């Protein structure tokens, strides 16, 4: 008796700074459609903003994929941000507060991790993939 | 996209009404700092009611702008931070925004005026000028 | 087509369905009406019983081979059982009284089978085993559904408990009170922070009192949750006055190295209220009083 | 009833661990403030079990040779690479306030940590009556 989740996904290419605003707009929209509250919509939009900016700053080109993976038990929004830049040398260091190479506050990645329920990062020269997800039980 | 900066005596008011791109934000910072210098502003109120996303970059722009304004001798108040924006900011990390905040332009203006009144330069220079 | 060794059950369910249904319901209703008066809908129950017996008949008639019929293949049957027992769970029936339903049916069916098949013991054994097996599984299914429903009810209750226990109170113009009571975990902290921030914005509360008298233990994670709420409130423009830290709490927090440096703290809600009124430029005055 | 175990996999279990520790402390005759310290230490230790490992066992036991109470937490998580560093104030690997373990050390009379990187961690903390 399993209901097949009605998964859908949207992909936003990230090539320059104007795509950051677009990507987070789409994330907010999808989150709202799934039924996430305003607070969670803001968390998701902010997280996408952080990750998309990383792509613009270090990744040259990439994309952001926003996936609705909800089922009848929980709401789940997964986001994959992928870029084809030089990669992150030292992931541990990049995940530390206050560490930055690009003039930000250095709260980007660690801040995003704190906002999300799931956070996975893989990086090698030429390919960096960060997947995040926010999960809420349906009440 | 140019964000309007209004002048009210020696106070500057600005209300960010749209979702800003990075370039817009930097342009705004530049415009504002120049305007402060031009009119020797004593105070600035920035209304960010319409900002639905303040990420670490935007937080830095706000902080930096406030820091620059202070160096130029102006008091700064931010108003209209949305509840969810505030929550997201503190979850990302403490102290992302280190500027005084209040609810709306009205109160922002009141606070700024009260602060300016305490200042020596406002009392002396205005009075003699 | 192979012969169906369970044909006697099928015949029984066809020819004596009315009798079986009535015996079964009489017994179930006798018990339930006594224990849960007013919670039993007789017509509904009889309708369900007929539907269930019909499905059972279908299950046995479609059966062939050695193994007992598999009820998981018959979703209709499972659905009826589920519906019934989740309804019982919602109405607060005890699990044993709910299980009574299927057990009674088993007794009735067994009696009928023994009566009709006492001439052919081999067939009787086969049929009894099949009835046993199918009804046992049905009973497990109803039990599962019962527990599932109960758990959902409990989860909902605890959710509403969380909502109930975090009110935000408008004490005076621009002064809010958030009394914290009980264990503060991540989910609750998130909810109460959301609620607090919304109220602060709505009432433009320039001062917020957070009373922690009801917080049982102050450790770093509780302190962190409260600190986040405070930081966010300050970003909106509200000043925070914390009240109700016990002497034990103050000693422990200091030992843990937590200072709440950017917060005004007062021992009692009374002192905190005075402070809050002072911050909004008001005070409480003695007016002579009615009672001397 | 001289030893009670609670398996801690998430926040609800922490509350249970704290209740257990507080109850045993007061039954053993600890003063109010001491019981509060013990409860808080229990909360810190139990929370570590699911923050730093996937969960683990929390035990409270009454000590008899010398009257007192012992808290023991055991996990099979990644272990603590640098115990000395973990005992410094302000050091945290999981975005905490960084005063968990040093706090426990101050709240209890004795604490020892046994950690094998990759194998897990056992922390024992005692308080004497």
UniProtKB/TrEMBL annotation, chain A:
<dbReference type="InterPro" id="IPR003594">
    <property type="entry name" value="HATPase_dom"/>
</dbReference>
<keyword id="KW-0723">Serine/threonine-protein kinase</keyword>
<keyword id="KW-0418">Kinase</keyword>
<feature type="domain" description="Histidine kinase/HSP90-like ATPase">
    <location>
        <begin position="39"/>
        <end position="138"/>
    </location>
</feature>
<dbReference type="InterPro" id="IPR036890">
    <property type="entry name" value="HATPase_C_sf"/>
</dbReference>
<dbReference type="GO" id="GO:0004674">
    <property type="term" value="F:protein serine/threonine kinase activity"/>
</dbReference>
<keyword id="KW-0808">Transferase</keyword>
<dbReference type="Pfam" id="PF13581">
    <property type="entry name" value="HATPase_c_2"/>
</dbReference>
<protein>
    <submittedName>
        <fullName>Putative anti-sigma regulatory factor, serine/threonine protein kinase</fullName>
    </submittedName>
</protein>
Automatic annotation (TrEMBL), chain B:
<protein>
    <submittedName>
        <fullName>Sulfate transporter/antisigma-factor antagonist STAS</fullName>
    </submittedName>
</protein>
<dbReference type="InterPro" id="IPR002645">
    <property type="entry name" value="STAS_dom"/>
</dbReference>
<feature type="domain" description="STAS">
    <location>
        <begin position="1"/>
        <end position="93"/>
    </location>
</feature>
<dbReference type="InterPro" id="IPR051932">
    <property type="entry name" value="Bact_StressResp_Reg"/>
</dbReference>
<dbReference type="Pfam" id="PF01740">
    <property type="entry name" value="STAS"/>
</dbReference>
<dbReference type="InterPro" id="IPR036513">
    <property type="entry name" value="STAS_dom_sf"/>
</dbReference>
From TrEMBL, chain C:
<dbReference type="InterPro" id="IPR036513">
    <property type="entry name" value="STAS_dom_sf"/>
</dbReference>
<dbReference type="InterPro" id="IPR051932">
    <property type="entry name" value="Bact_StressResp_Reg"/>
</dbReference>
<feature type="domain" description="STAS">
    <location>
        <begin position="165"/>
        <end position="280"/>
    </location>
</feature>
<dbReference type="Pfam" id="PF01740">
    <property type="entry name" value="STAS"/>
</dbReference>
<keyword id="KW-0597">Phosphoprotein</keyword>
<dbReference type="InterPro" id="IPR025751">
    <property type="entry name" value="RsbRD_N_dom"/>
</dbReference>
<protein>
    <submittedName>
        <fullName>Anti-sigma-factor antagonist</fullName>
    </submittedName>
</protein>
<dbReference type="Pfam" id="PF14361">
    <property type="entry name" value="RsbRD_N"/>
</dbReference>
<dbReference type="InterPro" id="IPR002645">
    <property type="entry name" value="STAS_dom"/>
</dbReference>
TrEMBL record, chain D:
<keyword id="KW-0418">Kinase</keyword>
<feature type="domain" description="Histidine kinase/HSP90-like ATPase">
    <location>
        <begin position="13"/>
        <end position="127"/>
    </location>
</feature>
<dbReference type="Pfam" id="PF13581">
    <property type="entry name" value="HATPase_c_2"/>
</dbReference>
<dbReference type="GO" id="GO:0004674">
    <property type="term" value="F:protein serine/threonine kinase activity"/>
</dbReference>
<dbReference type="InterPro" id="IPR003594">
    <property type="entry name" value="HATPase_dom"/>
</dbReference>
<dbReference type="InterPro" id="IPR036890">
    <property type="entry name" value="HATPase_C_sf"/>
</dbReference>
<keyword id="KW-0808">Transferase</keyword>
<dbReference type="InterPro" id="IPR050267">
    <property type="entry name" value="Anti-sigma-factor_SerPK"/>
</dbReference>
<keyword id="KW-0723">Serine/threonine-protein kinase</keyword>
<protein>
    <submittedName>
        <fullName>Putative anti-sigma regulatory factor, serine/threonine protein kinase</fullName>
    </submittedName>
</protein>
